């Protein structure tokens, strides 16, 4: 009888209760983290970057050096393209931002500078 009192440890019931509590807390936290991480998939980010690159190339090729905003629909997603043009002396600064219309979060942001040359 004396030997049983000296043994220490957890009973199977205590282990099961602790595991249940751990699971009840951990599973919703993992689901929430998964939703946060997957809000913007990598394909959405790549698509936004491609849209920004196309707009930058179009701006430089067609010499459309005026600020503008427009919305497009690509892959069943409504995108907002914001083009900002600033001229400082002979330097033209061009910034293209692409965001989703529904939440306004900027997913792609491109910036370049173009020297306008000596008159």
Instruction: Give the fraction of residues assigned to helices.
Output: 40-55%
Question: What is the level 1 CATH name of the largest domain?
Answer: Alpha Beta
CATH topology of the largest domain: the name is Pantoate--beta-alanine Ligase, Chain: A,domain 2
Radius of gyration (CA) equals 28 Å
Tally of strands = 4
Q: Helices and strands, in N-to-C order?
A: HHHEEEE
- Kindly name the structural category: alpha+beta
CATH architecture of the largest domain: 2-Layer Sandwich
Give the low-confidence spans. Answer: none
Figure out the total of helices: 3
- Sum up the overall morphology in one term: elongated
**Strand order in space, largest sheet:** 1-2-3-4
What descriptive keywords fit this protein?
single chain; 119 residues; alpha+beta; Pantoate--beta-alanine Ligase, Chain: A,domain 2; four-stranded antiparallel beta sheet; 44% helix
Which helices and strands occur, and which strands form pairs?
Elements: H1 2-6, H2 12-37, H3 42-62, E1 68-74, E2 77-88, E3 91-100, E4 106-115
Account of the protein in words:
With 119 residues, the chain is of the alpha+beta class. The protein folds into two domains: 2-37; 42-115, GSPII I/J protein-like (Pantoate--beta-alanine Ligase, Chain: A,domain 2, 2-Layer Sandwich). 44% of the residues lie in helices and 33% in strands. It has helices at 2-6, 12-37, 42-62; strands at 68-74, 77-88, 91-100, 106-115. Strands 1-2-3-4 form a four-stranded antiparallel β-sheet, covered by helices on one side. The longest helix has 26 residues, at 12-37. It is elongated, with a radius of gyration of 28 Å.
């Amino acid at each position: 009888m004396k030997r049983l009192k000296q043994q220490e440890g957890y009973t199977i019931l205590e282990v099961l209760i602790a595991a249940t509590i751990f699971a009840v807390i951990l599973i919703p936290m993992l689901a929430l983290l998964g939703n946060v991480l997957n809000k913007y998939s990598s394909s959405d980010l790549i698509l936004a970057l491609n849209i920004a690159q196309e707009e930058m190339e179009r701006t430089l090729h067609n010499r459309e050096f005026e600020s503008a905003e427009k919305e497009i629909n690509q892959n069943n997603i409504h995108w907002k393209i914001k083009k900002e043009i600033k001229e400082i002396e002979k330097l033209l600064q061009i910034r293209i931002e692409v965001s989703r219309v529904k939440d306004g979060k900027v997913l792609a942001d491109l910036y370049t500078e173009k020297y306008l040359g000596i008159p």
